[in-house]
Amino acid sequence: MSGDLTRLPASELRGQIAARKVSPVELTKAVLARAEKLQPVLNCFITIAGEQALAAAQLAEQAVMDGKPLGLLHGIPFAAKDLVNTAGVRTTFGSLLYENNIPKEDAVAAARMKSAGAILFGKTTTPEYGHKALTDAPLFGRTRNAFSPKHTSGGSSGGAAVAVAAGIGPIGIATDGGGSTRIPAAANGMVGLKQSNGVIPHSQVADAFGNYTYVTPMTRTVMDTALMLQAMAGPHPSDPWSIGLAPQDYIAAARTEGTLKGKRILFSATLGNTVVAKDVRASFERALGRLRELGADLVELDAELPDMAPVWTIINHTTWKARFDDMIRRDGNRMTPSLVRQVAMAADWSGADYQRAQFQRTEIFRMVQGWFESADYLVTPTLSRTALPIDQDLFDPIDIDGVEVGELRSNWFPYTMPFNITGHPALTLCSGYDSEGLPIGLQIVGRFRDDASVLRAAALYEASEDWLSHWPPL
After folding, report:
1. Which residues constitute the domain of residue 192?
2. Helix (H, G, I), strand (E, B), or coil: what is residue 123?
3. pTM, 2 dp
4. Is 474 inside any structural domain?
5. Is 314 within 8 Å of 354 (Cβ atoms)?
6. Catalytic residue set
7. pLDDT tens-place string over residues 425-460
8. How far apart are CA 428 and CA 189, in angstroms?
9. Does 217 fall in a domain?
10. Are 217 and 171 in contact (CB under 8 A)?
11. Is residue 341 part of a domain?
12. How far apart are CA 336 and CA 324, in angstroms?
């Protein structure tokens, strides 16, 4: 039955576990067997914690048999991106410098998953400190796309997306600092949510007040995203943005009830981008048609965001300089060259430059807030093209439909960065496949702190299509 188990979403598995139709031990063994089979092909794990997972599964099974109250994700295996601290399980940050690091405590998000009954079985790959949208590092090599070994997984949560896409566990924890959940989710046909700032506490971020990074769900279905969000959301003293913020009923929001009648959707195929692949544009047009059929009123966005890359880069790279400069001075020869190069880019920026970027961040937030005064959602493509070649370098230009269009960050994922800066919820889900069979993503952005509404729109769109029946040809 293991083949069937690894294709079931968490939303189905939890009910079957509670009804004693599926054993947490049997499920965990199936997940570990699939990980062992596919890891040599996909390279999406840094650590697989098989013994710990089976021990936790046995306890979970005993709780079911004893008739004890069960948590929201009781007996469901999950993997966590290797930037997220997990007590007693190696957490490397994708770095040779932390190759043998074993945290004593869980990150809040991981602790809450465990409290909900979920079973940690592994740590998924990330570029060193999550520094780029491609998943490779000296510690482990490259992670391949679930749909094509010739293409990148995307990043920086590449391992998390590939593991779920390949059926190696139904859910996973990811992170997103500029698109790091949504980019690989789109490249592998998964659901990737970057929730509003503060909804899931970020207990590891160094600058909590200026935060633009998020600990996030990575799943195959919108309902599984809702389950993870319900488990991880809620205030915590470590994160000032979370304090006083009560969770919404995300599970109810993700049920496919009702329509989008009366909802106003702004849309933009470019969001200031210059080139969009033909297959992506066609998929986007089809998705707009579906949203219109669901009852929404669609209006093309007539405003353009300013170029996000300079704002994000100054904020991000100066943050990295503060975090990694001393480390690079000591051990830069053992660190990823692309991380070292980006930290060096911040050498000439002053405190005033950083503060001016924060001023621009505020202006952009207010601009986006203005859009939502008269609209419920903004929809865009998630990426300008599908997954890049496996050997793509961060600093090399990318091709779209055979034409060289420029550097990677501004030309592949300009759609994702703005909402890290503004804090608005943004979710990607599959909207089709290109001529090579690679997944295409649709991004739905909602009002600040109205994450439940984004889940509702995504669930309705998901139910209107049959993309969930597509599995990678592994």
Report:
1. 2-469
2. strand
3. 0.98
4. no
5. yes
6. 81, 156, 180
7. 999 999 999 999 999 999 999 999 999 999 999 999
8. 9
9. yes
10. yes
11. yes
12. 12
Is 353 domain-assigned?
yes
Give me the sign of the Cα torsion angle 347, 353, 359, 361. Answer: negative
At 3 the pLDDT is 54
Q: What share of the chain is helix, strand, coil (3-state, %, to 5)?
A: 40, 15, 45
The pLDDT of 297-308, averaged and rounded, is 90
* Token pair belonging to 284: 């986007």
Contact criterion met (CB below 8 Å) for 431 and 331: no
**For residues 346 and 321, is the Cβ–Cβ distance under 8 A?**
yes
The encoded tokens of residue 200 equal: 């899931």
Cα–Cα distance for residue pair 116/10, rounded to 1 Å: 13
Q: Evaluate if residue 2 carries a pLDDT over 70.
A: no
Write the CATH number for 121.
3.90.1300.10
Residue that is written with structure tokens 């957490």 in the block: 91
CB-CB contact of 34 with 167 (8 Å): yes
DSSP string, 375-403: -SEEEEESSSSSPPBTT--TTS-EEETTE
User: Cα separations (Å) of 128 from 191, 214, 253, 334, 436?
Assistant: 23, 17, 35, 11, 30
- CB-side exposure of 157: number of CA atoms within 13 Å? 39
Of 236, 116, 95, which Cα lies nearest the Cα of 171?
116
Number of domains in the chain: 1
